[in-house]
Design goal:
This protein is of the alpha/beta class. It has one domain (about 1-170). The chain is built from four helices and eight strands. It has a four-stranded mixed sheet with strand order 1-8-7-6, covered by helices on one side. A four-stranded mixed sheet has the order 2-3-4-5. Strand 3 and strand 4 (about 35-40) form a beta hairpin. The chain starts with a strand and ends with a helix.
Length: about 180
């Protein structure tokens, strides 16, 4: 397992139509050479990942701050837009020559959340067997990752409701209708 916290440099998520999968590439800024990690997301995995990302976002907002879930969802949508204004989606992804887990992408199947000793949330993405990746995501990177996933799922035409600020999505996700 590789844990990437402060050394995260770039993320890229693209649709590979011949595989009907999303290719997730991450490179690090640590050391003299950047290291790149490559993973496959299936449609099923993308759904699991979206739920985990939404869980991370919701945990960062104290519930008692909002009168209801609709207000919380709307606040999350505003926070999302604000974070994306700070993000850099224009810089080209920088290729790497170092692949600690190999050049062939690893098919991910499990996603979990945990906290480190400082109380920061860690997104854990793993295959059925073998090594995966654990990412510490600050607010800006978390919102950027959500945008990358939503945009890529839309490009893939997977018909997944990855959207911010829609109260009906939050209610459906929690099974309240």
């Amino acid at each position: 397992m590789f844990t990437i916290m402060e050394q995260l440099h770039q993320m890229q998520l693209t649709f590979a139509p011949e595989e009907d999968r999303l290719l997730f590439r991450v490179n690090t800024a640590g050391g003299r050479q950047r290291a790149e990690f490559r993973f496959w997301f299936t449609r099923r995995y993308a759904k699991l990942l979206w739920m985990a990302l939404m869980n991370m976002l919701e945990r960062r907002q104290p519930r008692e701050k909002f009168k209801d879930e609709i207000a919380q969802t709307q606040a999350l949508a505003q926070e999302h837009q604000k974070a994306l204004q700070q993000a850099d989606f224009q810089t080209q992804y920088e290729e790497s020559a170092v692949f600690p887990l190999g050049e062939v992408p690893i098919l991910l199947s499990r996603v979990t959340l945990k906290e480190n000793e400082r109380g920061e949330q860690i997104l854990c993405m793993h295959p059925t067997q073998g090594q995966g990746l654990e990412l510490g995501l600050n607010d800006q990177i978390l919102h950027s990752f959500c945008k990358l996933l939503a945009d890529s799922a839309k490009t893939a035409e997977w018909d997944l409701p990855f959207d911010f600020g829609r109260a009906e999505d939050l209610i459906a996700r929690r099974g309240l209708n």
